[in-house]
Amino acid sequence: MNLTWQAEEVLRAVRGQCLHEQTWEARGVAVDSHATQPGDLFVALKDSAHDAHDDVGLAFAKGAAAAIVQRAPSQVPPDAPLIFVDDTFAALQDLGRVGRLRAKAKIVAVTSAGRKRDCPEQLRAMLEAESDTYANEDNQPHAWSVPLSLARLPAGAHYGIFAFGMNQAGELGSLAREVHPQVSLIADGAVQDSAAAEEEIFLGMSPDGTAILNRDTPHYARLLAAARTQGLKRTLSFGHNAKSDARLLAYLPEEDGQEVKAVVLGQKVSYRIGTQDALASLGALLAAIAAGGDLITCAEALAAYRPARSAA
């Protein structure tokens, strides 16, 4: 699964101008010159702390295919493939919008906290066992994080996983509207302020989307009401509660992990995990199935998953 941006496609997306004929092809998108890889499209962002136009020369030295800029940078070859725009951040947003529009992927959005931060990686392991899967690498609440992730979304991916970070209430709604997920997983929702912020994820969903909620949280009713108010026709829940669509029956400690026993959408299943949160893993499993994954295939992939910090 490879990301590809053709020169003409980028020019149309960002409404840019160029001084030379553009025939390049980008295989990635970067905003950090030090992390630029050969074949990347470099976007020179500018804010009060740093002007990345000063880094364009380094980006080309590291093999960038082209750069999006607001002004002519110094120390670059005279024939360097530059795309000039009025605002590079706005251009990155436009590139992200086009990236989302051209993508065929089923998008799963995740909000989680604490130990439940394993959920996005668990989802990735499960959906990668099904088909080509993309997962955003930076879920920090930077203004450029989501548009950059969308710009990096391969058009041919079958699944896309977007984990959201946020500083405060009011941020997640606008991000969710950009990502427009078909499935959302609120892995926690246990704290009132957190639940109030996390429910904003529904603002980016259409009525045919699916919300996955933790039924054990004291704010489950609030989250369910928020999903229904947004018009979502399908909500699924996970927890110990007998009414949960994915019900945790038991988790049995073993020497190097635990065995999880559950009933998922009426089907009994068991799988081994390491030290991750058993209930959160069940929520991730339910989200993977809601996105189109097979229960047995996903459960086997979940059993094989180990967090990077404990992989050694």
Characteristic terms for this protein:
312 residues; alpha/beta; Udp-n-acetylmuramoylalanyl-d-glutamate--2,6- Diaminopimelate Ligase, Chain: A, domain 1; UDP-N-acetylmuramoyl-L-alanine:D-glutamate ligase; 2 domains; 9-stranded mixed sheet; 4-stranded parallel sheet; 10 helices; 30% helix; elongated
Could you explain the architecture of this structure?
Helix 4 packs across helix 9. The longest helix has 15 residues. The chain has 312 residues and is α/β, with parallel strands linked by helices. The chain has two domains: 92 residues, MurE/MurF, N-terminal domain (Udp-n-acetylmuramoylalanyl-d-glutamate--2,6- Diaminopimelate Ligase, Chain: A, domain 1, 3-Layer(aba) Sandwich); 208 residues, UDP-N-acetylmuramoyl-L-alanine:D-glutamate ligase (3-Layer(aba) Sandwich). The two termini are 27 Å apart. The strands form three sheets. It has a nine-stranded mixed sheet with strand order 8-9-7-10-11-12-13-14-15, sandwiched between helices. It has a four-stranded parallel sheet with strand order 3-4-5-6. It has a two-stranded antiparallel ribbon with strand order 1-2.
Which helices and strands appear, and what pairs or packs with what?
Layout (H helix, E strand, L loop, with lengths): L4 E2 H8 L10 E2 L1 E3 L9 E4 L12 H6 L4 E4 L12 E3 L3 H15 L3 E6 L7 H10 L4 E3 L9 H7 L7 E6 L7 H8 L3 E4 L5 H7 L11 E5 L5 H10 L4 E6 L6 E9 L2 E8 L2 E7 L4 H13 L4 H10 L8
Parallel strand pairs: 3-4, 4-5, 5-6, 7-9, 7-10, 8-9, 10-11, 11-12, 12-13
Antiparallel strand pairs: 1-2, 13-14, 14-15
Helix pairs in contact: 3-5, 4-9, 4-10, 9-10
